[in-house]
Amino acid sequence: MSKALGYKAFGDAGEQVSFDRPDPVPGPGEVLVRVAAAGVNPLDHKLRSGHAPFINGELPFPQVLGMEAAGTVLAVGEDVTGLAVGDRVTGFALTGAGTYAETTLLLGTSTARIPDALPDTWAATIPVAGTTALDVLDQLDLPAGSSLLVNGIGGGVGIAVAQLARDRGLVVTGTASTAKRDLVTSTGATFVDYTQGDVVELLRAAAPDGFDALVDNVGGDPMRAVAPLARKIVSIGDFSVGEVGGVVVERRVDRAGLERVAELMVAGKLDPHITATYPLSRADEALALVESLHAKGKLVIDLSL
């Protein structure tokens, strides 16, 4: 049996529940992993709220929270290649097994070995924040010297985009709240505080000629407000971006992307900026902070605590 945090029905945090479940058994293409750390993401509460039924609408309750994890392989299902029992790995829980748990199932093709030099907590941030940042910048394919606006730069994806964009020679400007100023400027990005007036006018003052591209992490009205300032627009998750001439990021949830991000971390080009870690017994607090939109950088559940 292993401990897990999940939810007994779609809804708000009141539906969350801690429970014990049998260790899952890996089917074809899956690996059983003892979780060392799990990343906390906005997607987690969106899935709990029932906002993405195409992902978890058919799964039985209680469902386990979490979509990314790092840990050690305990068992390997049929048709899995390149992974073996005892490997330290990171990956996506695309099996529906969740990651706020002591053990889980990861999809073999969406799981990669991690370098010995990489801590489990860092590795746990690779699948969602790390590879999303990589995917969006690959999709934009901007030449060095291009200007990039990151709307909502202070979270896990935004901070990763800022660093990888800097490494590609892009000039980055990002919007965030006052409390995230130091975090944002530490990446070399120009900080624009959206609480200090009309954010559109503030951005126009910072970049009178506009921006070559916009990466939007916020969605909704804030996205629509700043969209006219950019010539290319990619949203991390708001499918209404098409209404303002943009597209949603094309996600590649494969082993190659995970390995590329791990290499960037080891090379010192990407720091996930983990601002807090929580034991599994307090995972609900971590998710509540992310859901409040006040989390800075990346939050991680560390099962060694």
Give the number of helices: 10
Number of strands: 16
Overall outline? globular
- Average pLDDT: 96
Determine Rg (CA atoms, Å): 19 Å
Strand pairing plus helix content: what structural class? alpha/beta
Largest sheet: 7 strands, mixed
- Proportion of strand residues: 25-35%
Low-confidence stretches: none
Helix content: 25-40%
User: What is the N-to-C order of secondary-structure elements (H for helix, E for strand)?
Assistant: EEEHHEEEEEHHEHEHEHEHEEHEHE
End-to-end Cα distance: 19 Å
Would you kindly provide a written description of the structure presented here, covering whatever features stand out?
This protein is α/β, with parallel strands linked by helices and 305 residues long. It has helices at residues 42-48, 53-56, 120-123, 126-140, 156-167, 181-185, 199-206, 220-226, 255-266, 283-291; strands at 2-7, 16-21, 30-40, 63-64, 68-76, 88-92, 103-107, 111-113, 147-151, 171-176, 190-193, 213-216, 233-235, 247-248, 274-278, 298-302. The strands form 3 sheets. Strands 3, 5, 6, 7, 8, 15 and 16 form a 7-stranded mixed sheet that branches. It has a 6-stranded parallel sheet with strand order 11-10-9-12-13-14, with helices on both faces.
